[in-house]
Amino acid sequence: MHRHTSPATGIIAWGGIGYHSLILLVRIVGTLNNHRYISEVLESVVLPYLQGLATAIFQQDNARPHVARIIQRFFVNHQIKLLSWPARSPDLSPIENM
């Protein structure tokens, strides 16, 4: 049986939803690393969005770019509360259904 063994093609996107709003959809070209996550998503999209919300809690899964120390410091430095996400938990994020 012939198998397709090359990398799968597709589009990677980052998005967010709030109780009464949506966050801008960001197309991720290539691999998302810690520094790109900060510059292309957190600084440019998340910070401006959260500035208008006094009691927001940010949720993300345990993907490598999300749990790096530099990312955790970013959240502490910008006083952003995070929702705890247990290790090896199923992806129960509501954004997956959007």
UniProtKB/TrEMBL annotation:
Supply the Gene3D superfamilies for this chain.
Answer: Ribonuclease H-like superfamily/Ribonuclease H
> Membrane-crossing residues?
12-30
Query: Which part of the chain is the Tc1-like transposase DDE domain?
Result: 17-97
Q: Does the keyword Cytoplasm apply?
A: no
> Which of UniProt's keywords are assigned here?
Membrane, Transmembrane, Transmembrane helix
Single GO MF descriptor: nucleic acid binding
Name-wise, this protein is Transposable element Tcb1 transposase
